[in-house]
Amino acid sequence: MKRRLHPIMFAGTGSDVGKSIVAAAFCRIFRQDGYNPAPFKAQNMALNSYVTPDGLEIGRAQAVQAEAAGIPCHTDMNPLLLKPNSDHTSQVVLHGKPIGNKDAYDYWGAGRVQRDFVSLTGPDFRHEVHAAFDRLASRYNPIVMEGAGSIAEINLRDRDLVNMSMAQHAKADVILVGDIDRGGVFASVYGSIMLQSPEDRSLIKGIIINKFRGDMRLFDEGRRMLEDLCGIPVLGVIPYYKDIYIDEEDSVSLDKKQRQLAEGKVNIAVILLRHISNFTDFDTLERDPRVNLFYTSNTSDLQEADIIILPGTKSTLDDLLELRRNGCAQAILRAHRNGKLIVGICGGYQMLGQTVNDPDGIEGSISSLPGLGLLPIHTTMTAEKTTRQVTFSFNGQTCQGYEIHQGVSDTDQAILQTDHCIGTYIHGFLDNAPVIEHLLKVSPRPLPIEGELARAPFSPSSGGTGGGSTFKDQQYDKLAAHVRQHVDMDKLYQIISDHD
Q1: At residue 231, does pLDDT exceed 50?
Q2: What is the gyration radius of the CA atoms in the chain, in angstroms?
Q3: Any idea which of 80-89, 110-119, 324-333, 426-435 has the lowest mean pLDDT?
Q4: What is the pLDDT of residue 123?
Q5: In this structure, what are the phi and psi dihedrals at residue 19, rounded to the nearest 5 degrees?
Q6: Cα–Cα distance between 123 and 126 in angstroms, integer?
Q7: Strands 291-296 and 266-271, how do they pair?
Q8: Range name among 24-28, 346-350, 464-468 with the lowest pLDDT average
């Protein structure tokens, strides 16, 4: 039996510094080294989510990390998920099930977390996330924990569920991750450490500098300076990579996506909705060499695209109203009349129907809107959320996906097709090769490239084999090798080994 390792938490100097990816790398590394790791993030705020094998909802990052660890995902890995409905409110998902909506001011400003959400169901969230961690820690070794945002938000310290208070409960060794690509890494690392209480500061055992570009030798002196300033070892400087494909959760990554048309390829436009969710639905298409996939709300770009996709959204009615205001609805209808293929997924599917109704105000103040009228369905928002993994047949071949949606449409068809229009509630629909081949075949633009798809379907729930037999396994192995090369693994193992 492998020795017991301390839980390890990858905390950040800020958002989008690479905590999720670093945690996924170490889930794979520990798996490769003969351990039985599991990911954990007490509280996640994201619109990209995934469904566990038992039909419950968690943040997608933890599903990806579980796949890297070679295990099925479970709600204990992300017991509390906040899904923003607007700039001010979020749906609260506890242990995989929605329990209501909460105003951000109330959530962060109404006092300690133990008293939050009393108006909903009154759970003690600190107790709930601690209990989830304890259950996970009894089954796996080690627990690879992820923090959220910056660990130096001192105004929220007494309400912290996910960073240093969670590390204290877990008795975790904390590794601080800083992003050198955005600049100011010395100030952000030093400040993040110095702003901690003495008790919390004692948990921070190492520093990882992420997203380095250029000659690594140029940072040798900077590394020594950081160690002298902070009194904590710099365990590694990880270079930026471009040839490793790991699904991302944070919508910040959308800013880096392609935004324009390209010659000689099938141009696929994804409507850039204000509340877009599960945008990883399009990663497979984006990596197909025959395709140029881009995000836009520009009406002229939509007229030039060969295929238009309406993606999932956390606020179907609000985004449908915005489509009418900004002219995208009219542009989609013109493109359809001109023979372009229109695809709707989840909330996008609902928008393509005849009406979307919300008589109980589940989403907000808009009670009803006409849809775009391209599919013969009517949708009514309901308090109960559908979350399940699904297997479906497409052109005679078995495919896989998952559903996460609020609202019921008056059809029992998983996929609804009319002339030049396809709608489905299934996320992961476009990760299946038969679906992609069909879309590109019926596209008005002839295919310029023959050949296999760039990658295999994504299936976090299956658990990775670690053997490199699938595209996803190969990517996790590449990520693990990249991190091993640039992190002092001997020192890291020394830190997290039991010294009692």
Answers
A1: yes
A2: 23
A3: 110-119
A4: 79
A5: -60, -45
A6: 9
A7: parallel
A8: 464-468
Q: What pLDDT shows up at residue 106?
A: 60
Which whole-number Å values give the CA distances from 73 to 60, 68, 79, 282, 403, in the listed order?
A: 10, 10, 12, 21, 16
* Cis, bond preceding 142 (omega within 30 deg of 0): yes
Compute, in degrees rounded to 10, the torsion defined by CA atoms 61, 67, 68, 74. Answer: 60
Q: Which residues pair with 343 in a beta bridge?
A: 309, 422
DSSP 8-class letter at 452: -
Share of the chain above pLDDT 90, in %: 74
Alpha-carbon distance of 96 to 55, in angstroms, equals: 8
404 and 278 Cβ atoms separated by less than 8 Å: yes
Residue 8 and residue 494: Cα distance in Å, rounded?
12
Instruction: Print burial letters for 455-488: b (CB count within 10 Å at least 16), e (below 16).
Output: bbbbbbbbbbebeeebbbbbbbbbbbebbbebbb
Q: Token digits for 140? A: 């796996």
User: Distance between CA atoms of 464 and 248, rounded to whole angstroms?
Assistant: 17
Cα distance between residue 245 and residue 343, in whole Å: 25
Residue for token digits 């590109």? 440
The stretch 418-427 carries a mean pLDDT of: 95
Unique residue bearing structure tokens 């070794």:
141
Strand partners, 437: none
Residue 160 has pLDDT above 80, yes or no: yes
105-108, Cβ contacts within 8 angstroms, sequence gap of 24 or more: 107/82, 108/156, 108/159
C-alpha–C-alpha distance, residues 185 and 352, integer Å: 46
Rounded Cα distance, 100 and 107, in Å: 12
8 Å CB contact between 177 and 204? no
Catalytic entry in 6, 275, 336, 427 = 427
- Catalytic residue status for 427: yes
SS3 114: helix
**pLDDT over 80 (residue 248):** no
Taking the C-alpha atoms of residue 248 and residue 258, their distance in angstroms, rounded to an integer, is: 15
In angstroms, rounded to a whole number, what is the distance separating the alpha carbons of residues 122 and 112?
Answer: 13
Tokens 């809107």: give the residue: 369
Query: What pLDDT does 145 receive?
Result: 98
pTM of the model: 0.85
Using DSSP's 3-state secondary structure scheme, residue 171 falls into: coil
The one catalytic residue among 346, 399, 405, 421:
346
Helices assigned H by DSSP within 366-470: 433-442
256-302 residue pLDDT tens? 566 678 888 999 999 999 999 998 999 999 999 999 999 999 999 99
Structure tokens at 226: 């950081």
Catalytic residue list contains 73: no
Q: How confident is the model at residue 156 (pLDDT cuts 50, 70, 90)?
A: confident
